[in-house]
Amino acid sequence: MSLRYGTRIILRRRGLYAPAYVNTSQSPLLARSWQRWSSVAASPASERVLFPGALNSKFTNALEFTRPSATEAIPTYRVMDQYGVVIDEHSGVDTTDEEALKLYSHMVTLSIMDLIMFEAQRQGRLSFYMVSAGEEGITVGSASALNPSDVVFAQYRETGVFIQRGFTLDQFMNQLFSNCKDGGKGRNMPVHYGSRQLNIHTISSTLATQIPHSAGAAYALKLQNLQRPDLPPRISCCYFGEGAASEGDFHGALNIAATRACPVIFVCRNNGFAISTPTADQYRGDGIASRGAGYGIQTIRVDGNDIFAVRKAIKEARRRALEDGGKPILVEAMAYRVGHHSTSDDSYAYRQKVEVEDWKRRDNPITRLRKWLEDRGLWDENKEKELRGKARKEILIAFDKAEKEKKPALRHAFTDVWETLTEEQKAHMNELRSVIERYPEEYNTDEYEGGLDGLKIEDSK
């Protein structure tokens, strides 16, 4: 290309040459580049906008404002109704009977663990807990449709994701009691699980921070998928509630994921309440799904009480997320939080108890799947009693073992900040040991692994 020809393009970009001066027919790449720079309609007869900020919008001489109330709400996808009846037998549930039984077992185990741990907190044996009642189908169902190698970023009500991925009851209890076998070494509050082996990042208390983290991880996975075609492609999957979608992190994450085409599934659990704030006080738009369209993200809304619908939606979302090098997908799973926000919350202070009980009785993911199983002759009352009895026994055994374990060694208050202990950290450890030795009646170290010897520097990194 001649200097004069290239100069004309540069000058045109600065508004000094007319479009007729530029010939892009010889180079498709040049044509695409030129289209990016075009900021006006191609001709006076154009019917659509070609402004860079809003492509493909039709011109109109009608002065009309878009009114959300005049637009139909985004539909909610479901596979079976609240009575466990499959709506379209032709498409089916895309789940084997054996797999459905396993999913049901995980949901029931989760619900029983929630009841036991909630009561344990009320007895003062546990400092904090959060139940997943009403959302078991979302977490268990979505996790079952992901690949085990996919990276997960959870919020704090995704216990079902951990169960489905293989997190053991012992691991749950060790973390809840922050004992010496806790993978986090007692440094985090209860229900903040994490597992490197299961590709689940440790949960953070700070609301919504996992959303931009998942977008960044997805971009890294996008590069890895391109650089290592010999490995199975992976995606990132992020969970959050509709309350977290009110945070700026949500908007920044969706925007960067859309503009950088990151292979990530954003799963919003819309359970109706952000702690004590109902959705009516959170937003006026059509839920969270409408925001996905605003960011140019493929979006679906699904019935969270229908585990088969959740599975199908996530399976298809994963397929689409890996198309053409990667793209983000938003899934809004609708549910009702029948439990309190946490053990620190009394939800009856801001909603009627009769409303909660009605949801428990009328429709929830566990009873809906049970009805489907019973209709197929796969389940009955005897099997239900056997499953619940076995699950309760296993949970209580793990509970008892974890409660009796010692707390992590005192040195873990200093380790893992740097690769090796700094001289300043060693001085702090010696100072703490000295204080405890001078006032033994004030400090009981017997409940910590290794006792006072757990502060020995030679035992630390």
Automatic annotation (TrEMBL):
Its cofactor is thiamine diphosphate. Its EC number is 1.2.4.4. One of its GO terms (biological process) is branched-chain amino acid catabolic process. Keywords: Metal-binding, Mitochondrion, Oxidoreductase, Potassium, Thiamine pyrophosphate, Transit peptide. Its main location: mitochondrion. It is found in: Mitochondrion matrix. It is an enzyme of class 1 (oxidoreductase). It comes from the Eukaryota. Residues 106-409 form the Dehydrogenase E1 component domain. One of its GO terms (molecular function) is branched-chain 2-oxo acid dehydrogenase activity. It catalyses: N(6)-[(R)-lipoyl]-L-lysyl-[protein] + 3-methyl-2-oxobutanoate + H(+) = N(6)-[(R)-S(8)-2-methylpropanoyldihydrolipoyl]-L-lysyl-[protein] + CO2. GO terms for cellular component: mitochondrial matrix. InterPro entries: Alpha-ketoacid_DH_E1_comp, DH_E1, THDP-binding. Pfam families: E1_dh (PF00676). The keyword Metal-binding applies. Belongs to the BCKDHA family. The branched-chain alpha-keto dehydrogenase complex catalyzes the overall conversion of alpha-keto acids to acyl-CoA and CO(2). It contains multiple copies of three enzymatic components: branched-chain alpha-keto acid decarboxylase (E1), lipoamide acyltransferase (E2) and lipoamide dehydrogenase (E3). This is 2-oxoisovalerate dehydrogenase subunit alpha. It comes from Glonium stellatum. The lineage of its organism: Eukaryota, Fungi, Dikarya, Ascomycota, Pezizomycotina.
